[in-house]
Write a structure and sequence with these properties.
This protein has one domain: P-loop containing nucleotide triphosphate hydrolases (Rossmann fold, 3-Layer(aba) Sandwich), CATH 3.40.50.300. Helix content is 25%, strand content 27%. The protein is built from four helices and eight strands, in the order E-E-H-E-H-E-E-H-E-E-E-H. It has an eight-stranded mixed beta sheet. Strand 1 and strand 2 form a beta hairpin. The two termini are 24 Å apart. Bound molecules: adenosine-5'-diphosphate and magnesium ion.
Amino acid sequence: MPNKDIKAKVFRDNNTTAIFNSNGPEETIWLGTIIGDLLQNGDLIALNGDLGAGKTSLIKGIALGLKSQDNITSPSFSIINEYTGIVPIFHFDFYRIGKPEDIEDLGYEEYFSDTGVILIEWAKIIADYLPDNLLLINIFMDYQNIFTRKIVFKPKGKRYEKIMEDLEAIVGTGH
Ligand SMILES: Nc1ncnc2c1ncn2[C@@H]1O[C@H](COP(=O)(O)OP(=O)(O)O)[C@@H](O)[C@H]1O
Ligand SMILES: [Mg+2]
């Protein structure tokens, strides 16, 4: 899985934030596979970033890392897609939710328990419903270069700090 062509490094911004600079969609997907490999039942990843930032691309990689063979697409209209991997994968996209309270009609609490790995696009829209502990990932586009993305990790809670440290150990750290 590690791709020798990708000289990827995670840069620490401060004690609790790490940044990965992606130079193309394949690097973002590759990073996702490494993350997916580190996840287990009950883990929740909250993604934010503009349209076309690469949230779904990263999730494609995460699902691959969880050994899913399903077709990964943004559940923009259905709000949720379920995939089969080593553990069940629940892929949410809240871009088109009418209002945050509509999440209550989805039976989301059942998903947000320990039944699988939860990956959420546009998590900020339903921020009030998210648990305290999660891995927050923000993807920033670079309007000077269409292939460059800044992928910023903010772990909340010990479990997610550990995932970020493991990720750094695999991908390598820069300065
Ligand atoms: N470094 C990169 N990482 C991810 N996607 C990239 C990158 N550079 C260009 N792209 C392109 O940006 C688009 C990202 O789309 P997508 O993953 O669906 O974004 P989102 O789910 O955030 O709307 C794709 O067309 C992809 O090819
Ligand atoms: Mg998307």
